[in-house]
Write the structure tokens for this entry.
Amino acid sequence: MEYRHGRDAALLAPEAAVQSEASPCLGMLGGRVRRPVRPAAGLCRTECLNPFRVYLREHTMADCRPYCEWQTDPEVMKFADKPVQSKEEALAGLVESVAQQADGERRKYFMAVVLKGSDEMIGDVGITRNERGFGDMGWFLRRAYWGKGYATEAVLLLIQYAAERLNLKKIFASCHRANKASERIMIKCGFTLFTSNEGRLYYMLDKNTRPAFQA
């Protein structure tokens, strides 16, 4: 089972098995927050309390160029079960992300990861919720921004959003055994290993055992 075009770090775990230009950004509302952050006009109409170097917002079709860049980068797709084969296929994924925003029974929340200051989109994170109150999470980051901690910050923001807005009980994420970078992100964000097989490691974040996950 795959998470939109083979996104590596968010396959469904075994037991879980057109947007306006002024999308609200998603900021962490707790923790070490001390000051408001004002994203540039056109990206956010609300103040977001966010201690990190990145913020999250809904995708728009204006994201096409950077989105297709990483979706068709062989290194970014290295551990994906079903790598994107063309720009057309990548564009279809972006269209789906935008269309989900108008779905009255929305289950998929794919958010752009954006640098503060420059407002440059550097990747995306996403979560799909199911009827049991569980979520399946994943992320992609453009290669130029690897190794800087941005993915960890984005995942923490999405965890906070999932707790406050989606009322999820558990979040699952997984990665290929060789994908040490994604595994480190999961561990840093409080996920714990709950099962594995020959090819993959499956991690879980439980609202009842991780206070920071609670809204």
Observations:
- The chain has four helices and nine strands.
